[in-house]
Every structure is written in structure tokens, then in C-alpha cells.
Amino acid sequence: MKSQMKLSILAVAASLMLPTTVNASDNVSPRIIGGMDANPASWRFFAQLIPSSTDEPFCGGSYIGNGFVLTAAHCVANRSSATLDVKLGGYKFNSKDGTRFDIKRIITHPSYNSTTVKHDVAVIELNTIPQGFPAVDLGQHSLAQYARAGDLLTVAGLGVTAQHGGRPDVLQEVSVPLVSAETCHEAGGSYAQDYIGVSAFCAGLKEGGKDSCAYDSGGPIVVNQGGLVTQLGIVSWGEGCALPGKYGVYADVPHHYDWINGVVTSPNTPFTFD
Questions:
Q1: 74 labelled catalytic
Q2: Residue 111: CB partners within 8 Å, gap ≥ 6?
Q3: 16, 124, 146, 149: least CB-packed within 10 angstroms?
């Protein structure tokens, strides 16, 4: 799952065969490949980030209640809230479905690093509190409380459905296994960064074929335990889309929960871009 910026980087990297690097933002792209049409009833908390002047989403997000939306920092860092909207209840691409909301403020994680893409977490406060939209449950304390390597997690988005492909008509979802930090580090390059396994995690298949992709950035990856859906991660980055030996990287929600909760419960949280 990846933003337009990431898609452009991916295209250049592919054409020039750039070597891998520890600077994650140099050659990565967030992405839904190998998935299926999602059931809207299962993703009522899904959010689209869209320019105020169009209906075409450039990133995803999740509604976390009380007028706040969770997304990736790289989707919104240094963007003006006046130029963006959030759409809830919309499951079609470039459509008038759903409800648009103006943005009051954008708060990026104070330790977000645009070069390494560490702490790729941001919270958006809407101008009004949506009615009739359920909030997703957020994982707390530790990822290990909810899943271990090999367990299936499900990610959704409206990103491209092939590495150089087009956008889907409707919201897509795909299930991918959680990957251990050790296995992810073995992928080399940007995957060897020491924050993976601490503030971010990997998910995907060693053989490739299923993944998030460009324009999926910021969207939720969740676990379903007996009907309770809990968001564990935020689509952040990856090298290519659904490639063998490469994985999707997700900002770890339980790791960042205290900061997220602090933003939601404190009206004067700093690090705001108006």
C-alpha cells in the first residue's frame, strides 16, 4: 500500500534497477495485490484520504472514534489540512459514495523520519464527529498479545492491484501471514533496519504474490479473533509489490498506542500541521 509519491519512486527504481539501500524512502512502495473484493460491512471503519478537489484517494486510514482518523505519517507530513478531506463509508474508487469530512488538524508522530520511514504514524482530527461510523479497536501494549509469526492478518485498500497496474473498482482485501523480525531482516537492504521488530513489523509471503501496494499507504492491517477485529498495523512501505523474498512493512499500532491515545485525549497535542 503506497502513496502516489511512493508509486513514482517504485517506477523509477524498477526502470533503473536501483540497488537496495538502508534509506527506505529511496526505493519502496506501499500496496493490495492477490486479494479480493472486500465486504464493506467488515470495513466500516475504513477511511479514504482524498484531495479536496477530487474523489480519487491517495492513501487509506481508519476511523478510531471521537472524530479521529489514523493513517501513515508519510501520507500527510507537511500537507495542509485545507487541501485534504477524509471520506468514511466509501468503498468505491473515485466515486461519490460515502461521506466527506473537513480536517481540523493533522498530527504526525514527533519521531517520524521521512528517510527511514520510522514511526510512520499520524492522526487526523476531523472538524466534526461522524455519526453512525464505528471505530476500529486498536491493539495495545504488544503485538505479541495478538499474533505471532505465521498468523494471518488482513489488510485493505484501494491501491493498485499489480506493481504497474491500475486501481480497483471497489475496496480490496488480502490476508498475509505475520513475518518474524529475523526473517524480515534476512530480506536485506531496507529490511535490515533495526526498528523493524520494534516499532514496525513485516507481513507477507516468502514466495510473493499477495501484498499491499501503491496508494494503499495509511490503511489498516487487522486481526480477527473470534469476531473481534483489532488493528495491529498501518500500511507503511515495501520494496516493490508482492515480490518473492520481500515483505510489506507496517507501523506497529500497539507500540504506538500510548502516543495515539494521548493525541485523541489531549486537545493541545503539539506537532500539528494546519
A1: yes
A2: 118, 119
A3: 16
